[in-house]
UniProtKB/TrEMBL annotation:
Subunit relationships: Homodimer.
Lineage per the UniProt record: Eukaryota, Viridiplantae, Streptophyta, Embryophyta, Tracheophyta
Free-text function comment from the UniProt entry: Required for the formation of a threonylcarbamoyl group on adenosine at position 37 (t(6)A37) in mitochondrial tRNAs that read codons beginning with adenine. Probably involved in the transfer of the threonylcarbamoyl moiety of threonylcarbamoyl-AMP (TC-AMP) to the N6 group of A37. Involved in mitochondrial genome maintenance.
Residue ranges of domain Gcp-like in the record: 26-329
Keywords recorded for this protein, A-Z: Acyltransferase, Metal-binding, Mitochondrion, Transferase, tRNA processing
UniProt keyword Transferase, yes or no: yes
Annotated signal sequence range: none
Cofactor comment text: Binds 1 divalent metal cation per subunit.
Subcellular compartments: Mitochondrion
Catalytic activity annotation: L-threonylcarbamoyladenylate + adenosine(37) in tRNA = N(6)-L-threonylcarbamoyladenosine(37) in tRNA + AMP + H(+)
Family note: Belongs to the KAE1 / TsaD family.
Name used for this protein in its record: Glycoprotease 1
Annotated source species: Rehmannia glutinosa
Cofactor: a divalent metal cation
Amino acid sequence: DEDLVVLGIETSCDDTAAAVVRSNGQILSQVVSSQADLLAQFGGVAPKMAEEAHSRVIDQVVQEALDKAEITEKELSAVAVTIGPGLSLCLRVGVRKARKLAGTYVLPIVGVHHMEAHALVARLVERELQFPFMALLISGGHNLLILARDLGHYIQLGTTIDDAIGEAYDKTAKWLGLDMRKSGGPAVEELAREGDANSIVFKVPMKQHKDCNFSYAGLKTQVRLAIEANNIDAEIPISSASSEDRRARADIAASFQRVAVLHLEEKCERAIEWALKIEPSVKFLVVSGGVASNQFVRARLNHIVEKKCLQLVCPPPSLCTDNGVMIAWTGIEHFRMGRYDTPPPACEPEDVV
Ligand code: KG4
Ligand code: ZN
C-alpha cells in the first residue's frame, strides 16, 4: 500500500480547520480556528460574517497545519476539501483555497462529504472497524442513522424530521442563560450534572412512530415552556443567578438531556435491529459529530450497544466536532480507491480564482 500524505480543509460551518494525515493513520498536524467569539456576540451563525471570518484565517490555518506537520506543499499526495453539506458561502472559501494549492503545486483534489467524514474518521481511530458498520451522526445540523455497507455505499435508516439534537442543546443553553462562548452543548452537559433529571417530565419524541427518525422541535418547545413556568430570565447569566434559580436551571438541563438522549437510545435500538436484518455481520456502531463528545450520550449509547452485542466506536472529542483530520482521512480513503480529480495544469497563484 502506497504511503500517502493528505491535507484536509474544512470550512462548512463556523470553524476553519486544516490537518495533515498519513495513510497509516498518523495525524501529523491538526489546526482549528473557531468563530466562538462571533457566535457568542451574535447568538448564531450569520453566513456572510462566517464567510469573512473564514477568509481572514484560511491561509494562516493551512500554513500552520503544513508547518506543524513539517511538510511542504510539494510533498503532499493530494488535497481533500469539504464540498458539502454546509453554508455555500463558507464552503467556497475552503474549495477556493484547495483549488489554488492544487493549481500551484499540481496536486489531485478529493471533494469530501462532511457527514461521510464524521463517520469514516472512526476508521482512523479504530483500525478493526471494517464495512459494514452502523453510524449515528449527531451534530448541530444533522441527526442521521446510517448503515455503511462499503465506501461510498450508505443506506439512510433515519434522519430528523425537523431539528437536530445539537440545535436543541444550543437553544436550551441560550434560554438558560449559559455561557455561549463555547458552543451550547458542553455548557448544558456541565450544568446537567448538578440537576435532578427526573424533576421535570418531558415527553419523549416520536414514541408512537415505528421508524428510526428523530424530532427535536417539540422537545425544544417543552423546554421553553418549562423555562417560562420557572420564571427563568436568560438575560441574567447563570453566574449571577441565585442558588434557587441555579437549581431550577440545572433541573431543566438535566431533564432535557435525559429525554433528548432517551430519544437517541430508542431509535438506535430499533435501527440496530433493522441493520442486522440487512447486514448480519455488523459489529460496530460509530457515534460521531459534535454531540458525540458528550459523556452522558456516550455512556447511554454504550449501554444500548452492549445490550445488542455490538461495540461502540466513539472518536475523541477533538475528532467528533468539526475538524480537518476527518476530511484528510476521508480524502485518503477515496484517493486509495482512485476517486479524485486529476490535478489542474500548473499555474501561478494569481491565475487562480
Ligand atoms: O459536528 P459539529 O462540530 O458541527 C456541525 O457539523 O454541526 O457539532 C456541533 C454541535 C453543536 O450543536 C454543539 O452544541 C454540539 O455539537 N456539542 C455538544 C457537545 N459538544 C458539542 N452537545 C452536547 N454535549 C456536548 N458536550
Ligand atoms: Zn459537523
